[in-house]
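Subject: for your reference before the review

Hello V.,

The reviewers asked for a structural picture of the protein, and I figured it would be easier to keep everything in one thread rather than splitting it across files. Below is the amino acid sequence we used in the manuscript, unchanged from the supplementary table.
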Amino acid sequence: MKRSLGVLLAGLFSISAQAADLMSVYRDALTHDAQFMAAKASLDAGQEKRIQGRAGLLPGVGASATTAWNQNTYNGTDRDFNSNTIGAELRQPIFNWNNWVQYRQGELQTLLADAQFELARQDLILRVSQAYFDVLNARDSLTTLRTLYEASGQQLELAKKSFEVGTVTVTDVHEAQSRYDLTSAQVIAAENALEVARQRLAQIIGKEPEGLQGLREGASLALPEPQDIGQWASAASQQSYGVQIQQIVADIAQREVSRTRAGHMPTLDVVARYGESNAGATNFTDARSEVTTRSIGLELNVPIFQGGLVSSQTREAAALLTKSQADLDDAQRTAALAARQAYLGVTSGLAQVKALEAARVSSRSALEANRLGYEVGVRINIDVLNAQSQLADAEQQLAKARYDALIAQLQLKAAVGTLGEDDVAQLNELLQNQ
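And here is what came back from the structure prediction:
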């Protein structure tokens, strides 16, 4: 029996030791989150843009071959023969402004793909952390409500016994029964909320989260450094990934104007050609014809008029450039606002945590006082029930405030484009098995 108990305890300890933390959940998300997998594929596709743009500056080689059966009649005489040709051409651009601008655009599009991927990585950290803490918050709420449920049940039993001996009225019993039933419904809702939160996390990491480490009691949350909201907003407006992406988009749009204008410019290529042709007897001779040609030289093409297409495309590109510059301005303002909101979320969140910690202490004291007062007859049943609910509400608000402050810290780092795996590791140090 002792051995069986020891095995059971060892198994329970093993399960507890295997509780997942935020870092392990994040690493699972790196390989299972569908949105991040799509971002990686987009990154791979974006790396090809530089190669595609460079191709227009490199020589191109082509080959061709034809064969044909010919039937001719000359002065009443039929002469049928087969003709064959083969050829090859090498073309090296010397001056082609359109191709050069496309090359520069290809480089920018590759940088754009890099920035979009880093934005997706930051987004993954935020989504994983939010989903992780949503589970913890739902779990804490359920634990608090179950405690309240048990306390309400005890208070209901006490009210029934007191009513039987005539020390309280039936109203006290009904109030206790009502609070007990309400708490029971809240527990059911909390259980559903926990399951929904678990499934949201499972959607990201690709599996059911078995056990999650919780936030250590009394874990210290630091204020942002520097403690200047203006500096954070300024940094966000310059270096957030949203701003970087829009800046690259504007640069691409500006080069697109130059590329469309290249439709008015001449192009100059070095062209080398080689060809062979042979044919049987023709109408004019019985001898077989064989010809070999070789040539190399410069080829100049000058566009004269294309029906107004180039001018229209240039105006279109100029309008899109104006749009991209306005989008950049909006991205800078949005980033600054996000940084300000996140900074206030951290500072006000920490202040709220401190206040709610004090509220929890006072709520516990109030509950004990009301219980003692009820026992000696100076408090009624509803006073105890209200004190129990007040303590449960304070504990729920405190837990949510802590998680919100942690998420706000990550959002602040994301707003300035510095959120990374190191921040996940630092946050992970605040967790422990529960």
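For the response letter, the relevant points are probably these. Residues 1-17 have pLDDT under 50 and may be disordered. The CA atoms of residues 151 and 388 lie 8 Å apart.

Happy to draft the paragraph if you're swamped.

O.
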